[in-house]
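Researcher: Let's run the pair from yesterday's discussion. Sequence first, then tokens, for each.
Model: Starting with the first of the pair.
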Amino acid sequence: MPSRIWLIGNGRSLLQTPLHLLTNEQTFGLNRNHWLDFHPQRYLCMDIADGDMEWKRAVDFNRDARKYLWDGLQYDGEATRLARCRHHFYALDNVDKRVQSWHLPEICTALGSISIMMQVAVLEGFEEIYLLGCDLWTKGQNHYDERYVTNEDIERRNADALYLHQVAKMSCPVSIVNCTIGGQLNIYPRADMRDILKG
């Protein structure tokens, strides 16, 4: 049976997602997942604003997870450090120099945290990637926790996210299935998490 991993984003749909059903599954959480109170087997902390110290609480919450941390974080424990790749400067704000594909085995950090999680999953040998909480952005509250507030332009955020997923679909050598409840991300095949777990 192919090995699978569940990548858990930060979308509002997670409030309706029965994450407790994933207790015996391989899971990968990111950034402020400690507000969700679900302990994944892997944890990525990459998207941190200057002066934001909430990441320390998140890392402590994920103390038993295999950690992948941005190299700039001052963390004394065991973790795989992820430096910004050669494309990072040209991330999504420069259309003319956007990265066109992943460049494994070096992880491409130019496209965002979900992209990094997918690449790590591939490098670890997983053959099936399932997404949860990848809702894309809408007006109003977009995060599962109301403490997370963003005033960024929704249209730009969605354009950036869709580009990330288009590159992932073209670059990823294994299958990606979106099991997010609702949301607007329709680049990948859709499935119900419960059906996958039953199968």
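Model: Moving on to the second of the pair.
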Amino acid sequence: MINLLPPKAKSDYQYARRSLALRGWVIALAFVLVGLGGLMTFGLLQIHQAITDNKNQVARAQAILAKEKLTQTESKVKEISSSLRLATQVLSNEILFSKLITQIGAAMPPGAVLSSLNINKSSGALDLNAKARDYVTASQVQVNLSSSKDKIFARADIVNINCTTSKTEDKPDPYPCTITLRALFNDKNQFLFINQEPKS
């Protein structure tokens, strides 16, 4: 086929075809640029989200560590407090028996003797047993131990008094009466380790 078009028309057709091809490349390049822009935006959003998640994880980890340290500190404080309370209880029940027995002996009225004493674990009081020659003397034991001037006990209550007489014995008991008392120490007394003044 012979192309009989004038040279100018031929040139116009060639430029039109080239323009159409170039337009296609421009459109394709625009799509590529839009795609790259979308990928970059998505990547930046992902990076920002990862940074935010990482910061949140770090904050949670720090909060957990702080809470654990607080719990450990509170636990140690409770252990120390328990140890101090136990030491105080032990010391408060450690009685200086040498001083106590001497003082009780001095407070006994004539005709009465101390036979035994025991610490009552349930109430922290002191149970005393004494023997006396008669009921009046046994009662006087309670009066003397409760006396404020002796400063031994805050109070001494009579649990019981029992007087027995036996006519069959060759040698009568010089102390036929037995008195049992329950005594509570004063808040400040010289018979507990906890109340001892340090020596200078």
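Researcher: Give me one sentence on the second I can quote.
Model: The mean pLDDT is 77.
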